[in-house]
Amino acid sequence: MMGKDAWTLIGAPRPFDQEFKFVTSPFLSPLVLGTIRLLLAFYTLITLLTILIREAVITHDADSFFSYFTELSYIGLCSYFWASAVQTLCFARRSGDKPSYPLQTWPRFLQFLHSLLWSTVTVFPFIVTPVFWILLSSPSTFKSTFSAWENISVHALNSVFALFEITVSNVSPQPWVHSIFLIILLGAYLCVAYITHATQGFYTYGFLNPVKEKGFLAVYIVAIAIAGFAIFFIVRGLCWLKNRLFFRSSLHGVNLAVEYEKEAIVV
């Protein structure tokens, strides 16, 4: 069983999110924030289902859908928006005398997962987007209306959605230890990529081919890992700056925090 300090270290302190930063914004009301998150949840889900169904019915290569980091990270984005939309809309209904949202009373492991999920959806898109447009895009990227929409959705709008979370929500900089989890997840994806090659006979991304890339393979892997650290650092900095400039001046957020603290003292 993890100790108190360990839970706090990984992003699940007790009480959890006492300033309601996961469900508030310095610019939008909880209801508007929750509604936008819900709309993004629907859009990302429709995008994923459309691509998957098309691959299953038309191109007949749906068996490789879950082998691509792009799709996996987009699934994470979709999952986050569904989870955050539900939590935010619940908070919008309870932001009266006793403000709260369900995640605050859930097991700390789930609180940690939500916090870590936020870290992944604000870092991975900024890896996917430049890697695709710099290394993988080709004239076929926009060869049809569907192809253009698909690539814009999963290789461009993913970063727009991530930037929305970073700039519009009140979420604080996540724990530094999350950067280690992100690198572990990136490493785990390498396993998925090479398992895919072993079982289906192709590399999900050409630069992962050791025969073709030789020594450059290690360069690509290290560069992506470094990029992951750098992006996490930048995101933390942006969140810190945003909260310093806006959260303290957000009367809604401050008042809710005061109410929460009063309730905690009474309990």
UniProtKB/TrEMBL annotation:
The chain crosses the membrane at residues 31-53, 73-92, 112-136, 180-197, 217-241. It is found in: Endomembrane system. InterPro entries: ADTRP_AIG1 (IPR006838). GO terms for cellular component: endomembrane system; membrane. Its main location: membrane. Keywords: Membrane, Transmembrane, Transmembrane helix. It comes from the Eukaryota. It is a multi-pass membrane protein. PANTHER family: MYND-TYPE DOMAIN-CONTAINING PROTEIN, OS02G0130600 PROTEIN-RELATED. This is Uncharacterized protein. It comes from Sphaerobolus stellatus (strain SS14).
